[in-house]
Every structure is written in C-alpha cells, then in structure tokens.
Amino acid sequence: MQDVAEELGVSVDIVTLHIVVEEQPVVEAFRWYYFKFGRQLRATMALHSNLRSAMEAFLIEFVEMCLDQFAKSQANFKHSIFDLGPTTEEIQSAINEMQVDWQRQVHDKFQELRHDLVNPDKAESLAVFYITLVEGIYEMINYGTPEGQLYEVVELSLVILEKHMNPNSG
Question: Who's near 49: CB < 8 A, 6+ residues apart?
C-alpha cells in the first residue's frame, strides 16, 4: 500500500480508505479488462440471429482482439499478471466468476438459437465445444501460432457447426 501511495503522491491513509484489501486493485484490473473486451464480444454475438453467423463473428472478433492485445503488449494481460506471482483466493475467485460469465454467454447463445440445429439437444455439447475452442485459440495465440492457422481453426470449427445446422436456418 505504501508503494501505491508513493506512486499516487498521497498518504497511505488515503489509499487504505479506498482499497480495503491489497488484492482489490488487481481484481479491479481484471474486471476492467474483462468488461472492456467482454462487452465487445457480447455485442458482436448479439448482432446475429443465426448460430453460424454469431459464432463466426464471435470467433473472428476474439482472434482479432487477442492478436491486437498481444501485439501491443507481447503478452496477453491475464498471463502477464499471473507471471507476477501466485494468485490469492480473492483474485482466483474473481477470475473464475468472469470466466463463468463469458462461458454462460456462449451457452445462452446456443440455447437461444438451438432451433438452428438439426438436433436442438446438441446445443449444450456444441456450446461446450466452442467454449473449449476459445480457450484453445487463446493458448495458440500465447504460443505464437501464425495468424493464418488461427483463422483456419475458426473455419474448421464452422464446418463442424454447419454439419449440425438445419438447412432451413437463416
């Protein structure tokens, strides 16, 4: 807290008045990052009333955002903070909460547009597939996978989705 106070040019009392626990600034940084990018991804998905279009737009937007972030910082935000040291229970809890939230958004989109599928009962499995795919793409970017291969993975996932799509869906 002393370091934060010195950096801000205020007394430690002022800092401790606004920061209840030491993890709070880190948790708030994660929340800012999540809401900044999460809002953009939610809006991208919401623009589409067809499951294939929604997933294509979501994945391309995700890849582009991650590549842009990686180019700016040479590491994704989450990993650079994790590299600073072990996380506390409070930080891990906040990260888990945000992860569950974005996964729920993908899941909800599949449930909302399940009528686009030949077998609507496959919506849950396909949502899990896409949630796992997003995690994999994120790791691929962190390991320096060439951009072209990332878009190939997106295209392959869409081929898989098309095999489950009702031919009459928009």
Answer: 113, 170
